[in-house]
Specification:
The protein is mainly alpha-helical. The protein has helices spanning about 5-10, 15-35, 45-50, 55-60, 65-90, 95-110, 115-120, 125-145, 160-180, 190-205. It is elongated, with a radius of gyration of 20 Å.
């Protein structure tokens, strides 16, 4: 086991059967998290849902927090992969790229709508840092995809405008996931992504208003 994984309190799988077992544990952990919440999340509950012994899970993870961290890591990896793949197959042009980015982000949160809010609450410092790394990674992927179309951005500083748009889209998505149960907006995630894409495009393709003379 590498020093990094030892520090993370996680023993990575070495064989296909072991990886399948790990995926089963993580799926059960997400189920327990989404149905019971983080306060009632226990290794015993995960073991019961997975049909495994508690000891089998402790042989992989040092405790509850490391198991939660592994669930979050898996979801963040899915976010990064989903965005990267969507941008590769995006419709040509700025609108197609922004739409692909927004919809891919929304799909990931939609597929785990009941899990993300629990993971976003009460995060430890390392969890916050990993989340920021993932957001930075997908923003960089968007920047690279848009580079050939920077001339279509009408703001004075296209790179800055793109960063603002990317952060606004991701922040809005995170906020919606965190408040979807307590503050529903009546929209599907697809409709939300359509509307958010339209708002981002309106900002990017509208020239900045000049400051009024004094």
């Amino acid at each position: 086991m590498s020093q990094q994984h030892a520090e993370q309190g996680f023993r990575p799988p070495q064989q296909a059967r072991s990886r399948a077992s790990l995926n089963k544990v993580l799926a059960s952990a997400e189920h327990v998290l989404s149905t019971r919440g983080v306060e009632e999340f226990t290794v015993a509950a995960v073991a019961e849902h997975a049909g495994m012994s508690v000891g089998a899970i402790y042989r992989r993870f040092t405790g509850k927090q490391r198991l939660l961290q592994a669930v979050k890591e898996q979801l963040l990896e899915q976010l990064e992969t989903s965005v990267t793949e969507a941008l590769r197959s995006a419709r040509p042009g700025l609108d197609g790229i922004i739409s692909a980015f927004t919809h891919a982000t929304a799909r990931t949160f939609a597929n785990h709508a009941r899990t993300f809010p629990e993971l976003l609450s009460g995060q430890r410092a390392e969890g916050v840092e990993r989340g920021l790394q993932a957001l930075a990674a997908i923003q960089q992927s968007l920047t690279e995809a848009v580079e050939p179309h920077l001339d279509d951005i009408r703001r004075p500083d296209p790179h800055q405008a793109l960063r603002i748009a990317a952060r606004t889209i991701t922040s809005s998505c995170v906020h919606r996931a965190a408040t979807c149960r307590s503050w529903p907006d009546g929209l599907s995630w697809t409709t939300w992504a359509d509307e958010t894409t339209e708002m981002a495009m309106a900002y990017l393709t509208t020239e900045a208003r000049s400051e009024p003379s004094r």
